[in-house]
Amino acid sequence: MEEQMKEWLEPYSTTDYKTSTFETMQEQAKEWLDQGKVDLFLGYKMVQGHPLPHFFKKDNLDEVDDLIFGQARYSLEKIATKIAAEHPEMKIGLLVRDCNQRALNVLYVWNQLNPDNMETINVNCCPSKLKKHADCSYLEPEKYGSYKKMVGIDNNMEVEAAEEFSQEERYNRWLYEFQKCLKCYGCRDICPVCFCKECSLEHPDLIATGSIPPEVPIFHLVRAVHMGGRCIDCGLCEDACPSDIPLRLLYRKVSETVEDVFGYKTGTHTDQSPFNLLGDEVTLEPKPL
Amino acid sequence: MTNSIAEIEDAACIFVIGSNTTACHPLIARRIFRAKEKGAKLVVADPRHIQLSRFADIAVTQRLGSDVALLNGMMHIIIKNGWHDTAYIEERTEEFDGFKTAIDNYAPDKVEAITGIAQADLEKMAELYATNSPAALLYAMGITQHTTGVDNVKSCCNLAMLCGNVGVRSGGVNPLRGQNNVQGACDMGGLPNVFPAYQPVAVEANNEKFAKAWGKELPDQIGYTITDMIQAMIDGKLKALFVIGENPKMSDPDQNHLEKALEKLDLLICQDIFLTETAERADVVFAAASVAEKDGTFTNTERRCMKVNKAIDPVGDALSDWEIISKLSTAMGYEMNYEGPEEIFKEITTVTPSYAGMTYERLGLDGLQWPCPNTEHPGTQFLHKDQFTRGKGLFHAIEYLDPAEMPDDEYPYFLTTGRMFAHYHTGTMSRVSPHLDIEQKTGYVEIHPEDADKLAVIDGDTVNLATRRGEIQVPARISNLVKPGLLFVPFHFAENAANILTNSAFDPIAKIPEYKVCAVKIEKAA
Amino acid sequence: MDYKMIPSVCSYCGTGCGVLFQVMDGKLTGTMPMKTHPVNEGKLCIKGWNLHEHVVSDKRLQTPLLKKDGQLQEATWDQAIQTTAGKLKAIIKDHGPDSVGVLASAKITNEENYLAQKFARAVIGTNNVDHCARL
């Protein structure tokens, strides 16, 4: 178990800088809890060799010494959303990577969380183009193999590279990927910015139920469309996909379109989304094409 | 499984037979996809065109119940081409010659006549399996739920040994267990002939060991299997039945027959988390705690014993199964005063050699794979590494036999049964789950478009299905997953229960019923 | 306010995926895959993701039931256990221990299966113990 702990922590404990980050983070969380600035703090704790999301509270401040971050990425902000739905006044502290922060921004925009009730400690770690010069702690082993390279789509591929395939080839490669779908809905269930009470993916008039793979390619394209203005490129969907479908690439393309058409870079700020039609004000203002 | 789930990824060939893995074991299917994407060959044999078939290098749809012929045919080709592992056979196995003589009779033309598999396809299957090493063989109930279930399993073992695939990493013979703790229920001696860790009850030393451990004289006569119990109920020999966490009314192969048996009981005790179809018939029902409401361990299909942790208190007055059994035992005059599951687990490890090295602390969150004989032992990733448990691997000469019931003029279609991806077993748990219920609200029968045309049935029409056992009404689902002449019914749905139709003929050794094959007639409902 | 993540194992098939049960204020609110679990590495199937739903179903049995006048009626544990023990003892006395059968379960824990077969063998005195793995 000790060996395993070392493995999880290594990227962060080898340099002085990282070690001090650990301590600073713990001190900060402790201070906030102690002063009542937050009612609880969401971070990670090592449990029997596994880094698991954990909720630190004022009545057990000593436990905050166990606060860590490591390679496992969970959507702490999705958990915060669930808590806030039940306890709207609760002040929540959160350990955030850059992707978590982008998700928070979207959740603020869509009134799923109140920014006044949130305090965050930031951790530098991110592979997304939405953040420059950063690294990500991918838990996963490499996802591509020779056969996938030949007929499918490499999970590490960039949008531009995928667009170099002819339309027909690209289509066939996506079909290959979609046919592997096991319809677990993990992409939706893990998504920090999927919070709808009713989901189009489960609407029998849109997508037939009762068989796998789900209707190809409608299931995945319906989800992709719904990620426009929502997806913050955290990659948790792809992490959760049992079939290694390159979902992140698909949604990156959708986000590019949103950026091109509306000049809206999802999750990077807390401006209203062009897709937010709540209330009287319609903010959907496409650029002239 | 002789091998482990993660190892599948690194196989050079994966042969899946009688397992709809993407629907029934999705997180094992994941490993198959990953192996394939890394360059492994994939061979799929299933009477239906399952999702995995789309990704196979060769996929065949053998005629229902023809697996022995198929496997013998592959082995015939392998031996003929000299693709078998002679050094392995020489060193690690016995009875090869007798086996080889039997295999001589399964030339590809004969096999094609039985299985419907084209000779060229069979040759390709044989070549891919035999010439890409290590090759992992995966099967599930499509192999075992036959009157020739044991023959089918032995044939799988023959094939794996023939190519030297047993006792090697990423190879092996890998039955995928359908229920979360089938492995553990067997390991713990939930069988009529053995104590925990498969120690036969009829062996005096075992009997003495357990009699001493439990402080009670123990019976040494082998007991009834469930199949025997039902007959004994009908014969008036079995008067009381205590059913824990099972729903035989939905899972027994002949519901009408079982109904008669239940009627003859003086006492039916059911212990469950829901009022199942079986529990509705009970004289007493014990309300049990669910998976989230208790501590304990499950042992998965790769022999990994893992800790289950209590998340919430049981609903209402429900109690953990171990508490209920303890209370009943104490009331019967045999005191059981365990403090909790850990104390029971400690007792298990003292009488179960394969679990001897396990403690709750050692299990952690990763679990340990048996055999784990002492507290220093890291657990066992794959079995039979240097030698087989029995010493030498035994080849069996197996002859093909027809299923107990074949289509005829009166019942012209083949019927097979199985699971669909969103539901589990008799539906007790999955059908009350809103997100699973949305996917599939009631039963259906898959029928090929050609057959549907012939019967003037369109998608969603109600059809009557009848066998020699009984009759159900069920909506038709027109589907290319089945071939003409074959129908498929999932068995999760009480309102159109597959087990009213299925045949209770069973394997003479394993006593497993032939759920996978029977003859049926179909007509559009009036 | 209390929120916990409890690591456990999915009970929907023999694969044995690692899950995290989400518990808010003592109520089970969700299931998530355990990212670092050796079996499923942070993925689940549709059943696993919804594992909590059957647990919180309002159809769950909440109390023992005893048949009275042909109907199953709510009972206390003491009534249910004593009545059952009495009937079992009478059947064993009249017809012998082999007139009783016990079905252990492929769905309950190892500890519980162990006790179930111990109950059959040491308490009832029969090897008539099996489970529905074949079915």
What does this protein structure show overall?
- The complex is a heterotrimer of chains A (289), B (526) and C (135).
- By secondary structure, chain A is α/β, with parallel strands linked by helices.
- Chain A contains eleven helices and four strands.
- Chain A folds into two domains: 2-122, no CATH class; 146-262, no CATH class.
- Chain A is globular, with a radius of gyration of 20 Å.
- Chain B is an alpha/beta fold and 526 residues long.
- Chain B has three domains: 6-176, 3-Layer(aba) Sandwich (Dimethylsulfoxide Reductase, domain 2); 182-369, 3-Layer(aba) Sandwich (Rossmann fold); 413-524, Barwin-like endoglucanases, CATH 2.40.40.20.
- In chain B, the strands form six sheets. Chain B has a six-stranded mixed β-sheet. A five-stranded parallel β-sheet of chain B has the order 3-2-1-5-6, with helices on both faces. A three-stranded parallel β-sheet of chain B has the order 9-10-11, with no helix packed on it.
- Chain C is built from four helices and seven strands.
- In chain C, 68% of the residues are buried.
- Classes of the chains: A alpha/beta (289), B alpha/beta (526), C alpha+beta (135).
- The interface between B and C is large, with 143 and 99 residues.
Helix and strand arrangement:
The complex is a heterotrimer of chains A (289), B (526) and C (135).
Chain A: H1 2-13, H2 16-35, E1 40-47, E2 50-57, H3 76-86, E3 92-96, H4 98-109, E4 118-122, H5 146-151, H6 159-163, H7 167-179, H8 186-190, H9 218-226, H10 236-240, H11 247-262
Parallel strand pairs in A: 1-3, 3-4
Antiparallel strand pairs in A: 1-2
Chain B: E1 13-17, H1 21-24, H2 26-38, E2 41-45, E3 58-60, H3 67-80, H4 86-92, E4 93-94, H5 96-103, H6 108-115, H7 119-131, E5 135-139, H8 141-144, H9 149-162, E6 173-175, H10 182-187, E7 194-195, E8 199-200, H11 204-214, H12 226-234, E9 240-244, H13 248-251, H14 255-264, E10 267-272, E11 284-287, E12 296-299, E13 304-308, H15 321-331, H16 341-351, H17 360-363, E14 368-369, E15 393-394, E16 413-418, H18 434-439, E17 445-447, H19 449-454, E18 462-466, E19 471-478, E20 486-490, E21 518-524
Parallel strand pairs in B: 1-2, 1-5, 2-3, 4-15, 5-6, 9-10, 10-11, 16-20, 17-19
Antiparallel strand pairs in B: 7-8, 12-13, 13-14, 16-21, 18-19, 18-21
Chain C: E1 3-9, E2 18-24, E3 27-33, H1 46-49, H2 51-55, E4 65-68, E5 71-74, H3 77-95, E6 100-103, H4 110-124, E7 129-130
Parallel strand pairs in C: 6-7
Antiparallel strand pairs in C: 1-2, 2-3, 4-5
